[in-house]
Specification:
By secondary structure, the protein is an alpha/beta fold. 24% of the residues lie in helices and 19% in strands. The model is unreliable at 1-44 and 349-365 (pLDDT under 50). Residues 44-342 form the GH10 domain. InterPro entries: GH (IPR017853), GH10 (IPR044846), GH10_dom (IPR001000), Ricin_B-like_lectins (IPR035992), Ricin_B_lectin (IPR000772), TAT_signal (IPR006311).
Length: 488
């Protein structure tokens, strides 16, 4: 069991990528959707890698990558083969991206981004506002000067990566163990600093998911978990933009997977946010704990993915505890097999989220059309039935304005009598609803590669971004994730 009052010691010079942390555990117990979806494989065919197995249920399985290890062929071979999401360990943090005020540098972050995207992986940004790993000039500021520096930093970094990242950890580790706010230099600028950070981030890049990230928030009954939960509930009630919560999931020092872990995930998801396990590592790579945390995520429709914090044990900030899925030599461990088996057992059967964190049933008479890149549904705004209403992406909610039926005449109908309609045949033509008329601009081919192409134009359904409200158009097919959808 973990200590009843876990402590986080201050960072030491030359620290590794994360601080030593102790999980406030409860009694041991055994114990969607970010888009990597394309056409679903045979339900009987088990995937052979973590990323492919997670993708079967619309999730990702990622890892943290360090730029200085990209020259290690064993490291890159495993990472490139196994994972479909990447988080930079340190290269996108404040001290790395703005070492001098007003002078941004992205070379190391870009190295990771380019390596990942060249291999078809998506990238999470980590992190924009944090009390640790701040550059010296930022540490010397306070009050309104520090507040403005935070805003400027968020704007500067997000401008560079605008439209490129799946998500950003906007704020990291802002709570104490008892659920109160951490008394950091950022907190000293005013209790609204987290809200300001999220509003700034939304304005800087409306297309990316905005996350709050923390450790020791896995146990539902723990004070810190409740503090974060109450903040997010408040934010959602007041329209503060927040899309996801990251649970770091460091199981350390003998503490175990809480028996109420799935309750925690479901409770956060019920607020209307995605949940993700963002920095997973487990002392001695406990097979039961790895399998349990994986299954808990699979059991909550809005748990969008899992990231382990490093590739091999030797790459971990906790290297002496054998915490990852590959040993120092790059060999798969028993925990790897337990995770892969759990992911494959879920297969393509996990239904998409209804926003409550529980598996949902597609609306009667239709299917969702879910974007592979965004995990969001093609939606008729405000449930309008007016001809000419342009369709958009929006969080899947199980309502009739997201229920589409593919007819034998290749029409995609909504409300029974309205058809998905291309307002033209050229690149950028709007996609809207219109009374069904049997014309070719209302006929669509739903293809095995996940694309949906217009019979009239031959062009693909396409979205430029991933956020709520992104409008749908047709565009030349290019094989990218923003043109792939699944009907389920």
């Amino acid at each position: 069991m973990a200590s009843s009052s876990p402590a986080v010691p201050p960072a030491a010079p030359g620290r590794r990528s994360r601080w030593t942390r102790l999980l406030a555990g409860a009694a041991a117990g055994a114990l969607a959707t970010v888009g990597v979806l394309t056409a679903m494989p045979d339900a009987n065919a088990a995937a052979g890698t973590l990323g492919a197995a997670a993708a079967q249920s619309g999730r990702y399985f990622g890892t943290a990558i360090a730029a200085n290890r990209l020259g290690d062929s064993t490291y890159t071979t495993i990472a490139g083969r196994e994972f479909n999401m990447v988080t930079a360990e340190n290269e996108m943090k404040p001290e790395a991206t703005q070492p001098n005020r007003g002078q941004f540098t992205f070379s190391a972050g870009d190295q990771i981004y380019n390596w990942a995207t060249q291999r078809g992986m998506k990238v999470r940004g980590h992190t924009l506002a944090w009390h640790a790993q701040q550059p010296g000039w930022m540490q010397s500021l306070g009050g309104s000067s520090l507040r403005q520096a935070m805003i400027d930093h968020i704007n500067g970094v997000m401008a560079h990566y605008k439209g490129k990242l799946a998500a950003w950890d906007v704020v990291n580790e802002a709570f104490n163990e008892d659920g109160s706010r951490r008394q950091s230099n950022l907190q000293s600028t005013g209790n609204d600093w987290i809200e300001v950070a999220f509003r700034t981030a939304r304005n800087a890049d409306p297309s990316t998911k905005l996350c709050y990230n923390d450790y020791n928030i896995e146990n539902w009954s723990y004070g810190k978990t409740q503090g974060v939960y109450n903040m997010i509930r408040d934010f959602k009630s007041r329209g503060v933009p927040i899309d996801c919560v990251g649970l770091q999931t460091h199981f350390t020092g003998g503490s175990s997977l809480p028996g109420n872990f799935q309750t925690t995930l479901s409770s956060f998801a019920a607020l209307g946010v995605d949940v993700a396990l963002t920095e997973v590592d487990v002392t001695n790579s406990s097979t039961s704990q790895y399998a349990g945390l994986t299954q808990a995520c699979l059991n909550v429709a809005r748990c969008i993915g899992i990231t382990v914090w490093g590739v091999r044990d030797s790459d971990s900030w906790r290297a002496g505890e054998s915490p990852l899925l590959f040993d120092n030599g790059g060999n798969k461990k028993a925990a790897y097999t337990s995770v892969l088996n759990a992911l494959n057992a879920a297969g393509p059967s996990t239904p998409p989220s209804d926003g409550t964190g529980s598996p949902s049933t597609p609306p009667t008479g239709g299917n969702r059309i879910v974007g592979a890149q965004s995990g969001r549904c093609i939606d008729v705004p405000s449930a309008s039935q007016n001809d000419g209403t342009r369709v958009q992406l929006y969080d899947c909610n199980g309502q009739t304005n997201q229920a589409w039926t593919l007819t034998s005449s290749k029409q995609l109908t909504v409300y029974g009598a309205k058809c998905l309609d291309a307002a033209g045949s050229g690149n950028g033509s709007a996609v809207q609803i219109y009374s069904c008329n049997g014309q070719a601009n209302q006929q669509w081919n739903v293809n095995s590669n996940g694309t949906i192409t217009g019979v009239q134009s031959g062009r693909c359904l396409d979205v430029w971004g991933t956020g709520n409200g992104q409008q749908v158009q047709i565009y030349d097919c290019n094989g990218q994730a923003n043109q792939r959808f699944s009907m389920n």
